Amino acid sequence: MNTPKTVLIISTLDTKREETRYLKYKFKEIEVLPLLMDLSMRGKEPSRAELTPSHVATAGGSSIEEINQSRERSTITNIIIEGATKIAKDLYAAGKIHGVMAIGGSTGSLMATDVMRALPFGIPKLMISSTAALPGLSTKYIGTGDILLFHSVIEISGVTDMLKNVMDRACYAMKGMIKYVKNDLAAHSKKTIAMTMLGPCEQCASTVRAALEKEGYQITGFSAAGVGDQAMEKMIAEGFFQGVIDLAPGGVGEHYYGYMRDGGPHRLESAGKAGIPQIISTCSVNHMTPSRSKYKKEFYERRKYDLDKYRTWIRLSPEELRQVASEFARKLNIAKAPVKIMVPLKGWSSVDAKGNPTYDPEEDRIFTEALKGMLDSNIEIVEVDANMEDPLFSERVTRMALEMF
Questions:
Q1: Residue 307: its pLDDT value, please?
Q2: Is residue 149 domain-shared with residue 215, that is, in the same domain?
């Protein structure tokens, strides 16, 4: 007989007691073992969860007495999230849970999804939320996590037939994920390579991916628009990849200036720290994408390229190119494995095609020369006499990848 799988249920029993009790009942009915973790911060009744608020507070370095007495809501919330995260990670590492489900409104959803995002990619994560459709909240819930967000539509208040229908579907979905989907991604036998992709270098990315797949590599792409490359850095650190082809690391400068494609504070660092070889190129590095609310007056005078009616790329100034080069050097100089930087001399993307308003290979050299002066001597810059979207550049990247990975 197959051993039943265990699902960690995250809830707040002070506000969702009856609804959570139904979830436990349903899981038992369909032969899934529920393990309940209670994140209540103001509960007056005994928790009766397997993992009580006292367990969670202690794991977060505090006590439930201190939590109950505190009026600093943000502080105690962070303590509970930290404790819950530690418990969940320890349970998963010990093989004691196979999926995570949570139920809640806005506060409960924010707390539970913080815990979910701390667990590795591939572990089933399902959030039943009555606030999933509120503007701005769904992106906060999901972030860089592979979280299935289940909008309950109705308020989670009382075990009505409609809410039972929502919870039943969620429970069966979770059972299907933990029963039929294998979660051994980090131990994959093929050489797995992470690659950043972006519309203006899509042809290069697609060509390199196809060529490497013919050689037995498995290429996992990430949209380098902010969230995607943040997720890539996290998954590199978790051990999913044996190499990185970072065609579009523009998120480094976007984070430095606080613009829309912000790749996060660890952009361009995870592979180096993990000792994974990487090929870096320059798609989008010479452009910025500030939100309209952050436009300075002089931005309107800069050379720009409209990708579509929603997205405009503005060219960096010479001084900004030097600043971004400094950030690249600071991050890449910590690398414990080989790094090659491949710079196309005739434009860093399709946006940089001859005749387009921001095309300026001579000014791009400001970045390249500044980088050469700051990089450690073991990091090589390879210049290619082509546009990034030219077949010649794709061929050179592929050849370099086959040598390095």
A1: 85
A2: no
Regions of the chain where pLDDT drops below 70: 1, 43, 185-190
CB distance 256 to 231 below 8 Å: no
**Listed residue (258, 354, 254) closest to 313, CA to CA:** 254
What's residue 45's pLDDT?
A: 73
Tokens of 46: 């005994």
CATH number, domain containing residue 15: 3.40.50.12020
Domain of 242 in residue numbering reads as: 185-404
> Can you tell me which residue has the tokens 């523009």?
250
Q: How far apart are the C-alpha atoms of 170 and 173, rounded to whole Å?
A: 5
Alpha-carbon distance values, 319 to 309, 351, 364 (Å): 28, 21, 11
Predicted TM-score (pTM) of the model is 0.86
